[in-house]
Specification:
The complex is a heterodimer of chains A (112) and B (114). By secondary structure, chain A is an all-beta fold. Chain A is built from no helices and 11 strands. In chain A, strands 2, 4, 5, 9, 10 and 11 form a 6-stranded mixed beta sheet that branches. Chain A is globular. The mean pLDDT of chain A is 91. By secondary structure, chain B is an all-beta fold. In chain B, the strands form 2 sheets. In chain B, strands 2, 4, 5, 6, 9, 10 and 11 form a 7-stranded mixed beta sheet that branches. In chain B, strands 1-3-8-7 form a 4-stranded antiparallel beta sheet, with no helix packed on it. The termini of chain B are far apart. The mean pLDDT of chain B is 92. The chains are: A mainly beta (112), B mainly beta (114). Chains A and B meet through β4, β5 and β9 of A and β5, β9 and β10 of B.
């Protein structure tokens, strides 16, 4: 069983739609990250969360530590939001503090 | 200039060849990582280093070795490349602050082993 599960795996939306991507994890964590990977391959960090909610522009990330669940929302989606969105967590266990466990990603395609 | 750079960006090699992928960073971070990404599998950790004298195996270190020549440089070697090492390879750096870290990724190296 994967320690970090994302849903859906693939998502197609029309421009302007509100989008939600979900991430569930099964381990204790110190933080959760949302990353964006563009079609060219580059990966950028969008958010790092340990509680509550963060907002940056049209992107909103929330986390519920008790339920071990996080969501990434995109409001007023645009074709340039098309990318793979990756959830990753910093696990609390083990001697490799700070290492990330990654989900497999959600591929988002926003059609004009 | 990019904070984390990788060379080469693309490489085609043959089975059995030794190749090295290089990573440099100007962020001044102590922590550096090498990952590979395969379709449908997500990112997997190969090796990581928390400072110049520290090298640790990740989830999938077999067939790979690394060298941390300086704080700014972390190289990944495939001693004898095989086709199932064909993948997209990422270097990353991070800084641990208040028990949390953000990783900064290089642009990736696409490796094809024939």
């Amino acid at each position: 069983k994967n320690e970090v599960e994302q849903s859906p795996q693939n998502l197609t939306a029309q421009e302007g739609e509100f989008i939600t991507i979900n991430c569930s994890y099964s381990v204790g964590i110190s933080a959760l990250h949302w990353l964006q990977q563009h079609p060219g391959g580059g990966i950028v960090s969008l958010f790092m969360l340990s509680s509550g909610k963060k907002k940056h522009g049209r992107l909103i990330a929330t986390i519920n530590i008790q339920e071990k669940h996080s969501s990434l929302h995109i409001t007023a989606s645009h074709p340039r939001d098309s990318a793979v969105y990756i959830c990753a967590v910093n696990p609390l266990y083990g001697g490799s503090q700070g290492n990330l466990i990654f989900g497999k990603g959600t591929k988002l395609s926003v059609k004009p | 200039d990019a904070d984390v750079t990788q060379t080469p960006r693309n490489r085609i090699t043959k089975t059995g060849k030794r190749i090295m992928l290089e990573c440099s960073q100007t962020k001044g971070h102590d922590r550096m990582y090498w990952y590979r990404q395969d379709p449908g599998l997500g990112l997997r950790l190969i090796y990581y280093s928390f400072d110049v004298k520290d090298i640790n195996k990740g989830e999938i270190s077999d067939g790979y070795s690394v060298s941390r020549q300086a704080q700014a440089k972390f190289s990944l070697s495939l001693e004898s490349a095989i086709p199932n090492q064909t993948a997209l390879y990422f270097c990353a750096t991070s800084e641990l602050a208040r028990g949390q870290e953000t990783q900064y990724f290089g642009p990736g190296t696409r490796l094809l082993v024939l």
